[in-house]
């Protein structure tokens, strides 16, 4: 019998009852809340009994690793729903890890998570740490992506548990004026006539996973509160991962980190206007930048801007005769927009953009043309390790991910001498 699975179910039931009780107390229904407290006490006794049985079961059995993880039906186990989840919260696992490191209080649940991930009994993770439970690890990076207006627009891929890189074939094209996919053409042909053959051009692309690490320190007082640890460290690592990813996606050099938009060979720079003041963004800049974006999929375009540019946007306009036509729309407004807009494209403010007047402070991009590769939302490769540096409690979170633009060259379209790209930047205005 899988005692830990039953214990996890009981803990989930207890949490559900606690949430109900909290709501009843707020409504002033004290008697009903007290009845739920009695039910939680019964569950506590059941959990204690199951933990005792689980401990007795471990003492009288010696698991053997045969190279494949199995469940009790003999089927091999993957990294998804079948992986053990003995801890009810992230804080509970962090506290167990710290107790093991500092006080040598061993919690068998730590080894249960590690054994499933590493296939080794009584083992610890890399650098003597413990792997974080898969659902907690996945939730942190997934939350970082989903809460970011930029990251959740990217084209996302997931590496399998056995892989540390992704290979794919991409179309190799620089000119779509006569053909598509690097050579495919269609013709109007009269009956019984022949047409020239055509074939696509491809290039192989490879992306290796890189390692993202985060550190956080906790006092002994913090470690006693598992609920606080879950909320605090979960939010802290989520925000830190989001900021580091955005920074690399915009300006990363591709060395041990994602290749950023500003280092893409497909990036097109739009020159400043004659006599344009330093650090300014004008209506003419916006129109010329949009004109260099790809004609298709315009609905996916977004502006990336440094927040210092926000105060200039309400004045963004072009002159039409004697009147000025404004290119900016506020949040809400007539279209009930959830973001400010320029030329009806959403504006995302990111302080990872370059400073005011420097190339990269304003970008117009199609984020779907950028790949974000992760190890998966519930993979044991996202691990947590505990180290003690200068006598402090230190948690280290490790994620595996990478990113790069899909295209590496601007494109030439039909009947035009101007190249287009999904990534357009405004040049320096110093």
Could you characterize what this model shows?
There is one protein chain. The chain has 430 residues and is α+β, with helices and mostly antiparallel strands. The chain contains eight helices and 18 strands. Helix content is 30%, strand content 21%. The strands form five sheets. It has a seven-stranded mixed β-sheet with strand order 5-18-12-6-11-10-9, with helices on one face. Strands 1, 4, 13, 14 and 15 form a five-stranded mixed β-sheet that branches. Strands 2-3 form a two-stranded antiparallel sheet. Strand 7 (317-320) and strand 8 form a beta hairpin. Helix 1 packs antiparallel against helix 2 (30-59), helix 3 (90-103) crosses helix 7 (226-251) and helix 5 (134-146) packs across helix 7 (226-251). It starts with a helix and ends with a strand. It is found in: Virion. Residues 59-84 have a biased composition (Basic and acidic residues). Residues 59-85 are annotated as: Disordered.
